[in-house]
Amino acid sequence: MTNQPPPLTGYDVFAADPALTEGVARYVAAEHLGEAREELGRLGRAAGSAQAQCWGAQANAYPPVLRTHDRYGHRIDEVEFHPAWHRLLGHAVGAGLTGAWTRPHGHLRRTAGFLVWTQVEAGHGCPLSMTHAAVPALRAEPELAAVWEPLLTSPVYDAELRPAARKAGALAGMAMTEKQGGSDVRANTTRAEPLAADGEYVLTGHKWFCSAPMSDAFLVLAQAPGGLTCFLLPRVLPDGTRNAFRLQRLKDKLGNRSNASAEVEFDGRTWARRVGEEGRGLAAIIGMVAATRLDCVTASAAVMRQAVAQALHHTAYREAFGRRLADQPLMRNVLADLALESEAATTLALRLAAAYDGGTERDRALLRLAVPAAKYWVTKRCTPVVAEALECLGGNGYVEESGLPRLLREAPLNSIWEGSGNVQALDVLRALRREPAALDAYLTEIGAARGADHRLDRAIRGLLTELADLAGAEARARRLAERMALVLQGALLVRYAPPEVADAFCAARLGGDAGAAFGTLPHTLGLAAIAERARPVAE
Ligand SMILES: Cc1cc2nc3c(=O)[nH]c(=O)nc-3n(C[C@H](O)[C@H](O)[C@H](O)COP(=O)(O)OP(=O)(O)OC[C@H]3O[C@@H](n4cnc5c(N)ncnc54)[C@H](O)[C@@H]3O)c2cc1C
Question: Which of 31, 179, 205, 332 is the most exposed place for a label (fewest CB within 10 A)?
Fold first, then answer.
């Protein structure tokens, strides 16, 4: 047999990605850089191994199964996973992908690790994200945080359902969405009635989506006497008995099939602890939502990177009409265009993670605007990028074994959960209208690149004109969010990426010098260098 490429395996997913390695070097201080690189290299080699790739395939080929009752008819409300799911999660938790809050540059290092490891399998990124993101919400309640934060940030994956006091590590989920409303959670009807003990309640109601239902605890929104309130709901009560957490069904989803997403009911005996004050549920859970939104950006960057890596690898080996595909001018244009999109997404995700670590007022203000803009735009780009990358593999790409169909099914998800596209765009508008410091921080950030590229400068001027008058802006909120994300990506690439990458991005994405489809970059740009930079090389 000739002309079939070898599998892309036995490589270091981290080291093979210059946008990622350079980003880590940019933001991690010198005294921590060696350790960070070593750790990410270890994770990268594991992610590129045949073993981990096999776990990823198995976890999707054997999806989770709901077991509502045991053999005698008792309710157990458990979900059974293939062992590969546990191996993936175990490796991720052990590598610190839920431990960002405990060490210097924790967010940047975790984001880089998440980008590396979820390339193996995207579905288990969901419990990793929610566990990571639950920490800031729980900190509103120091007594609860004292119990749960060490468990949620622990490097031990402990899959047994036991009370917190007997766990070595724990996972958290969140349950906000109900049948009658997901984006508008104020429509929640789940009721919370206070018990005699302070801060304790029982819940009655349902949640229409509750992913990773075997997690140890969930942040839940419910209507208390004082209004919409956030609660921590453990699966197992402190005395070791199971909380009433009725799993009704698992969703039959387009993708994300390794992960379970359940419908769940609370039956009036479901016990929960209040987090924050009654009526302040949205304020309490917002810290969790902000962190998961950044993870949606990172997860999309990971899906895109893996798809583009597969396309670059395949075309480097496959020949047609007497020449390697990667050397054919039109394929080179497609590959360079895809690589550009992947690099822009990675660079933006890392910048936002660094702002989390920075933790200054200005960092927080930047995140307030840049996270929804990035969540809107980067997640939207994921599906077309993966579809085009799949086509680079020709018929092989359409076949399940290539891994590309799994990536394509996963691709739309990050744009839906944690606030769908319109909701993100409207959130950008809300921040623009209500939080002047957010716009100041954004303008300072992009201002650092001013004067370096005339197309970027023109795009900034155009954006400022659009921002000057926000009347009727709701109907053009997507356009605004897109432009803000593109200008921010352009500003970062102009400052940090190789000149050919920045030049092509500014020409195509800001200067309008490209068509709607990928592979329409001006042919005069350094296309070969852009594609070659991104090509993963097996050791
Ligand atoms: C696989 C999967 C797993 C999930 N896991 C969880 C989970 O673990 N926990 C959880 O709580 N939720 C979960 N969700 C739910 C998810 O967060 C919601 O589906 C999402 O927030 C959208 O809510 P909705 O489905 O009710 O859609 P709707 O709120 O009905 O929105 C439908 C559409 O209308 C748009 N829209 C809404 N408001 C406006 C407006 N004002 N102007 C213009 N357009 C608007 C939205 O952008 C969207 O495109 C999950 C969803 C999926 C698909």
Answer: 31
